Amino acid sequence: MTLILIVEDNPINRDVLGRRLERRGYNIRFAEDGPAGVQAAGDVMPDVILMDIGLGEMDGWEATRRIKADPRTEAIPIIALTASAFESDRVKSLEAGCCDFDTKPVDLPRLLGKIEGSLQARARSRAADSAA
Prior knowledge:
This protein is an alpha/beta fold. It has one domain (3-131): Rossmann fold, CATH 3.40.50. It has five helices and five strands, in the order βαβαβαβαβα. It has a five-stranded parallel beta sheet with strand order 2-1-3-4-5, with helices on both faces. Helix 1 (11-22) links the parallel strand 1 and strand 2 (27-31). Helix 2 (34-44) packs parallel to helix 3.
């Protein structure tokens, strides 16, 4: 079963998104802030991370950079989630190491497509690495 780590500081957003994804067959873990997200990434080794950008002391961009800097977690796909739809936020998310970007409120069918796309891209990358 696919394991998704949701890094989100808003308890209502965590609960709603987590329940919606669980109903679609995903296994869910949560982290409440950037430092906890970085720690959880290494502890649970999720298949994909949904990273809120507007976190407290450590924003989602910094948490993403730290996850990507760790050789154990660098290959985990990270999808940025934010209420801000500015192009500059999308660019900054990709520069930090996110593989994709989505806005809140979450459009679940669109997000599911991005999750599945990131999982397929990771599988292709693993297959290419093992073939080399």
